[in-house]
From TrEMBL:
The name this protein goes by in its record: 1-phosphofructokinase family hexose kinase
Entry superkingdom: Bacteria
Organism: Modestobacter muralis
Alphabetical keyword list: ATP-binding, Kinase, Nucleotide-binding, Transferase
CDD domains tied to this protein: FruK_PfkB_like
Length: 321
């Protein structure tokens, strides 16, 4: 009898959600009535979105999350061939609502997630550590439910270090600040901030950061000084920047008709990980990340792209000083 070698990628989604996308026929008017186009509902949350995109590329992936085994969210993931590893919690998985307008404007309404007690967090950490034994990447993604210690991601990075797995973190606000304040031993191999999150780390506003390219580079360099090996800075319609010990590059995306930006950053992270698994050099990892993010933005709702929908060759990558 042969045994499975285990997943190559493991994701943690501490705050999963059923993502319901409502498509508006025109601009949103507060107090008015909108007759919606057909809506979609997909299992989501940042780590789940990464897992879906990785699975669509035919790579073994395990999504770890808190949910009851019979939760509609778990049934939805299982139905698309991605059965998760769950730690039971009594509360149902939350529903997040996304309103998309014809010009691509996206408005999100997110419910709070289920609280995680000490036992649940310990069980999730144990699941991650066990699965990481066969994996090459672990991605810790998204917000933390109310009441979760803000330094939980830092604790998990320390816990996972002994497995030798590469660790990516994509979060924001207090959990991101706590992660980077915890010292080099808690620094992940990769962080994927957007410009708003990088501004939070730099103690400035997003507008001030974007007005000064030198400030962007200084903020990224500070992440390296804190122990982060690779920084993938996503820039929305302007593409992304990658900084590693080997150099720094910027990438411009191909022309894209934006339908929904939900999950585009998660798809970028998935593209980066997939390229790394294939042994690609930094420039190609960046091009693949941007291609995946652009492809996701051109899809409806929180859909994630297949490999044939992402074209790294259409991404322009340039070294930066």
């Amino acid at each position: 009898m042969t045994t499975s070698p285990g997943p190559q990628v493991v994701t943690l989604t501490a705050n999963p959600s059923l993502d319901r996308t409502l498509t508006l026929p025109g601009p949103l008017h507060r107090g008015g009535v909108a007759r919606l186009a057909p809506s979609t509902t997909e299992p989501g949350g940042k780590g789940v979105n990464v897992a879906r995109a990785v699975a669509a590329a035919g790579v073994d992936v395990l999504a770890v999350l808190p949910a009851a085994a019979d939760d509609p969210f778990v049934r939805a993931l299982t139905a698309i061939g991605l059965p998760p590893a769950v730690v039971p919690v009594p509360s149902p998985v939350r529903t997040n609502y996304t309103l998309t307008e014809p010009d691509g404007t996206t408005t999100k309404l997110n419910e709070p997630g289920a609280a995680l007690d000490d036992d649940v967090r310990a069980a999730l950490g144990s699941l991650l550590t066990t699965a990481a034994g066969s994996a090459r990447w672990v991605a810790l993604s998204g917000s933390l439910p109310t009441g979760t210690p803000v330094d939980w991601y830092a604790q998990l990075v320390r816990q996972l270090r002994a497995t030798g797995v590469r660790i990516a973190v994509d979060t924001s606000e207090a959990p991101l600040l706590a992660l980077l304040a915890a010292g080099p031993e808690a620094a992940p191999d990769l962080v994927k901030p957007n410009t708003e999150e990088l501004a939070q780390l730099a103690g400035t506003t997003e507008a001030a950061l974007l007005a000064d390219p030198a400030a962007v580079r200084a903020a990224v360099d500070d992440l390296h000084r804190r122990g982060v090996a690779e920084v993938l800075l996503t820039l929305g319609a302007d593409g992304a920047m990658l900084s590693t010990a080997a150099g720094c590059w910027s990438a411009a995306p191909p022309p894209t008709t934006v339908r929904s930006t939900v999950g585009a950053g998660d798809s970028s992270l998935a593209g980066y990980v997939l390229a790394d698994l294939a042994g690609a050099p930094p420039e190609e990892r960046l091009a693949t990340a941007v291609a995946y993010g652009s492809a996701a933005a051109g899809l409806p709702g929180s859909a994630v792209p297949r490999p044939d929908q992402a074209d790294p060759g259409a991404v322009s990558v340039q070294p930066t000083a």
